[in-house]
Amino acid sequence: MFRGWRRRRVLARRSIPEELWTSLVASVPALERLDPDRQRRLRELVLLFLHEKHFEPARGMVLDEAKQLRIAALACLPILELGLDAYAGFLSVVVHPDEFLVRDREYEDEDGVVHVGDDLLSGEAFEQGPVVLAWTEVEASGRGEGYN
Predict the structure, then answer these.
(1) Which of 33, 41, 78, 93 has the most Cβ atoms closer than 10 angstroms to its Cβ?
(2) Cα separation of 19 and 16, whole Å?
């Protein structure tokens, strides 16, 4: 109940600057293809995402408003029909400038053998967060090539 009230209040009092939104939609064909009603609903969902999630730059990454908007829009596109509660399990989005190395990762294969090694990742998500992204991969997303 309180969450719904708070979200309605955010939508009534805040907005995404028109110039930023227009520029984003023009740069992401996947968004440009949405009909006007879906674009409006996505914009509202993105505004709520930006309000409820915390962005954390890593390794010298600079996260301006346009970058945060792109991340939020690409994150909200798959949940457009589900709503923001689909992402209730995490609060933070950590953004690296490029792929990042995770050292000494352990995993067990199908035969039960434990392996330890380094992984070069472009993103990672944990059940209770955070979501970790590489900006270079975010930039390459949403171009209508099935990559997000």
Answers:
(1) 93
(2) 9
Strands 100-108 and 114-121: antiparallel
Q: Do the beta carbons of residue 54 and residue 91 sit within 8 Å?
A: yes
Sign of CA dihedral 119, 69, 76, 137: negative
Structure tokens at 63: 């996260």
DSSP code per residue over 62-116: ---HHHHHHHHHHHHGGGTTT-GGGGTT--EEEEESS-EEEEEEEEE-TTS-EEE
What six digits make up the tokens of 66?
A: 């346009």
Cis status of the peptide bond prior to 130, with omega within 30 of 0: yes
* pTM of the complete model: 0.88
Q: pLDDT tens, 39-56?
A: 999 999 999 999 999 999
| Rounded CA Rg of the chain | 17
Give residue 51's identity as a one-letter amino acid code.
Answer: H
Distances (CA, A) of 66 to 94, 102, 111, 125: 16, 28, 46, 22
Cα–Cα distance between 11 and 121 in angstroms, integer? 35
